[in-house]
Amino acid sequence: MDRASSRPIARWTAAFALSGAVLVAGCSESGSEEPPKTPVASTASGAYLAGRHAARIKDSRAASDYFGQALSHQPANDRVLLRAFNAHVRSGRVAEASELAKKILSIDPDNAVANLVLIADATRREDYDEVNQRLEKLSSSSGVRLAQPVIAAWTTFGKTKNGAEAIKALGPLRLEPQFVNFYLVHSALIDDLAGNTASAVERYAELSKRQSLPSLRVVQLIASFQSRNGKKAEADKTIEDFLDINSDSATGEALLKKLRDDGKLDPVVPDARAGIAELFMNLSSAFQSSGRSDQALFFVRLADHIRPGDATTIYLLGTVLEDDDRHAAAVATFQRVPRDSIFSWAARKSVATNLIGLERDADAIKALDALATERPERWDAVALLGNLYRARSRFSEAVTAYDKAIERIKAPQKRHWNLYYVRGIALERSKQWPRAEADFLQALKLSPDQAYVLNYLAYSWIERGEHLGKAKDMLAKALRQRPNDGYIVDSVGWVDYRLGNFKDAVVHLERATELRPHDPTINDHLGDAYWRAGRKHEARVQWRRALSLKPEKDAIPAIKKKLADGMEPFKPIKAAPPTDPKK
What we know:
- The protein is mostly helical.
- The chain has helices at 44-56, 60-73, 78-90, 94-107, 112-124, 128-138, 147-160, 163-169, 171-174, 180-194, 197-210, 216-227, 232-245, 250-262, 272-289, 293-306, 311-323, 327-334, 344-357, 361-374, 380-391, 395-407, 417-429, 433-446, 451-464, 468-481, 486-498, 502-515, 520-532, 536-548, 556-565.
- α28 (502-515) packs antiparallel against α29 (520-532).
């Protein structure tokens, strides 16, 4: 059984921590790709039902089309209006959503979501008088305590170019600890544009002190400011310090190369319009980091509407879609990232990742091979290729890919533990145990407390009858870290079973089936423990359940034999001599 945990790949790192709620409506979204033309429904009810189905399967482009059709049949239907509005926003049709937002506000003047959409649309047109009008209505909502002062500040700057007056509007954020980072970033950006260089230096310095691990976005903002103010060496060091901690960051490498090639970096936020877009990106990133994908998508769509073509916004949009398993939409979005952008490599790698999610393996392999050839010093694309093969149970090919990835690493660091872990899994599944064991031990050497490595190695030792006492200790350590992980609880129960402690085994394995009720191996294990504990009827119930859950093919004959004949007398496990990893 493959007990590997899934690992996130190439995720956007949130620049800020957000506390408190921001009021937005929840709705699913499909993506920005151009699908086949949506058929025209002949009736309002047909269009409405088709729209609901499209929303359920996260195809918001089709949902947008169908709800739009339904609304054309029933323009006075408030329910259809709201659904069409939400689908339009989440499919990227913010201009169309803006027209519906006006109708919504005629019914519900305090609707924060509709006001935010109209603020985004007015910002795109740089109509700051309208933004101010909308902002007055927005300020009554307790859910926008963060957005209101930042938008007010940028609107003031857009109208007056007075930095001090604009920053004064940010004042309420300075008083709330959870919003101080937002205050520092946006006040520094305004100072930068207003030419208040000394003040911007102080604000960026304070922001750096508050972040023990600065995000790439903050590094980009600070390095851009430094490079444009005659501090190229300081900008270089800012990026190098980031790469010292995040040495595998292709985007950080690209940022440093751009600085060294061009001598300076372009302003990240060149005007008030971009400042409001930056706020919406901040909010999207914060919601994304807290797992609230609908809200993250809402705000990044507004940012994309304000600054169409901005590479950072497009990349963030792609990661939001990817995180929500909207792979086709993510592919189309990442393909919009310009090749000369610092996000190009990461975006192309993410295209391959999402092609894997779509089971377009041939396309993914082609894309990863191209990336691996283009950058022979990088290991990440080759490792992704290994992940693809491992996911498809092509373990020998996975081993070959992982071998190439590890060859490209000059000196393994703690962060590389997962690469040895996944190669160990591929080696174990391709029956190369001595090498697999060595990889698991290397992973633990690099990062000793990884619960999944402890579990996989201990479980393998148990199955082989090796190092049983050490395996028990490792499982206890893993269980302390992840007490509600069904696979780890199963392993704890299974070692008790193998040692003849059937009563304890039943307790653990019953809990494991509660945590992982649809896992055939865990149900099979519980059946074995029931049988040894004298609960033979319950044992057969569990074995039948295990069969119904489609176990691996080589496990089926043994389960059927147990159902027919029961189990042979128990033989206490005898510890086998340990393997020699060097052989």
